[in-house]
């Protein structure tokens, strides 16, 4: 696992909106060899962007740009349907959300690290023996 990441929405949002950890996210992405994600990332980014607009944390145009340009961040997207079975297994057995399980399943499948700002996700992954597939953005 050498700088190849599955990126989740918690990190992707930091690249498009000024948040705590935005600088660290930019550095990690800049140094990465390869960035991939399940295609559900696009819907999660749309949800984050819409919330930011409704809360007056950014303009509609900035949010729309984040949604429209997200694909340029990624080297590859993987259909969530390819990850659903394993994601279900992780969610049912270990208590991950189905969404988090999709990212984690992809990391496991490709032997990449899931780069996330979600500390509880990292703690749970480590607890259930999947710690080698997660990296907390710090």
Q: What is the quaternary state of this protein?
A: single chain
Overall geometry = globular
The major pleated sheet works out as:
5 strands, parallel
Which band does the percent of strand residues land in? 5-15%
Report the count of strand segments: 5
Under the CATH scheme, the architecture is 3-Layer(aba) Sandwich
Note the run of SSEs as H and E.
EHHEHHEHHEHE
Termini separation comes to: 18 Å
Computed over alpha carbons, the radius of gyration is: 14 Å
Number of helices: 7
What's the name of the CATH homologous superfamily?
5'-nuclease
CATH class: Alpha Beta
- And the CATH topology? Rossmann fold
Chain-averaged pLDDT: 96
The low-confidence parts are none
> What number of domains?
1
What percent of the residues sit in helical stretches (DSSP H or I)?
A: 55-70%
Overall SS class = alpha/beta
Strand ordering within the main sheet: 3-2-1-4-5
Description:
The chain has 138 residues and is an alpha/beta fold. It has one domain: 5'-nuclease (Rossmann fold, 3-Layer(aba) Sandwich). Helices cover 55% and strands 14% of the residues. It is built from seven helices and five strands. It has a five-stranded parallel beta sheet with strand order 3-2-1-4-5. It is globular.
């Amino acid at each position: 696992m050498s700088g190849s990441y599955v990126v989740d929405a918690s990190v992707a949002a930091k690249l498009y909106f000024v948040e705590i950890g935005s600088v660290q996210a930019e550095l990690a992405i800049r140094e990465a060899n390869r960035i991939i994600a399940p295609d559900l990332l696009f819907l999660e980014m749309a949800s984050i962007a819409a919330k930011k607009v409704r809360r007056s944390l950014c303009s509609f145009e900035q949010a729309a740009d984040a949604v429209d340009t997200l694909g340029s961040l990624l080297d590859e997207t993987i259909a969530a349907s390819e990850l659903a079975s394993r994601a279900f297994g992780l969610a049912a057995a270990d208590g991950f959300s189905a969404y988090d399980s999709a990212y984690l399943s992809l990391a496991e499948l490709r032997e990449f690290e899931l780069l996330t700002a979600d500390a509880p996700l990292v703690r749970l992954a480590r607890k259930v023996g999947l710690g080698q597939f997660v990296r907390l953005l710090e």
